[in-house]
Amino acid sequence: MSPGSGSMNRTSSVATNTDLSSPSTARTGSTTLFSGSSATSVMVGSRGNGTAVLSPEPPVMVFFTVHDGKYAFLHLELTPRIFINPESCNCRKNSKTACLTSVLETKDKLIPLRRSCAAEPAARGLYTWDLAKFRMPRHPQYKDVEVLDKVKYLTLKFTSVEAKDEFRKELRLLEKVRDLEMEMCRDILREKEHKDQKPAKR
């Protein structure tokens, strides 16, 4: 992973079928955004050389939060199915009162959210609060990361309109990066397919 942006101070809550929206569940101090990239490599085989095209990893949003008194990370992949729904907050009312909320939703049934907590509560767990579990290539302990499989939407509450606007601006930027990387990957595949269709020279 390579850093995609800075951090922003705000609070957030997770809405699910279970009780994940209690105050101790999701209070964030900051968020980190990451973006991967596509890659190609030459593969040498018994029948000749080939090219492997790796699909780009979607950008990732990481929430720094607290769960059951323990520091935690919430890890969200920004797939093309994730979007901000202005109809799910007070923005839809277009009132004079500023809306400090954004709601992340998905066109799928559930949001792909993962959580990793420190081993002990409060400051005692700081040394085990490890963001490296979400690194690429995959960390050996990634398999131990908790998958939150009942999250339908994610509500983010900001301290100011400026903070909310900054978040949405950076989110749009990451979406552009994601779409560009996907298009680059498709271009490589189209070029490879075009070359494969050309008759071999004798």
Q: Can you characterise this structure?
A:
With 202 residues, this protein is of the alpha+beta class. It is 18% helix and 35% strand. The protein contains one helix and twelve strands; from the N terminus they run ββββββββββββα. The strands form three sheets. Strands 1-3-6-7-10-11 form a six-stranded antiparallel β-sheet, with helices on one face. The chain is flat, with a radius of gyration of 20 Å.
State Rg: 20 Å
Q: Write down the overall geometry.
A: flat
Distance between the termini: 45 Å
- Percent helix, as a range, is 10-25%
Proportion of β residues? 25-35%
According to DSSP, the number of beta strands is 12
Number of helices: 1
The average pLDDT score comes to 75
Helix vs. strand class:
alpha+beta
List keywords for this structure.
single chain, about 200 residues, alpha+beta, six-stranded antiparallel β-sheet, four-stranded antiparallel β-sheet, 12 strands, disordered N terminus
Please outline what is shown here:
With 202 residues, this protein is α+β, with helices and mostly antiparallel strands. It has one helix and twelve strands. The chain has one helix spanning 161-197; strands at 2-3, 10-16, 30-35, 39-45, 48-54, 60-67, 70-77, 82-84, 101-106, 113-117, 146-148, 151-158.
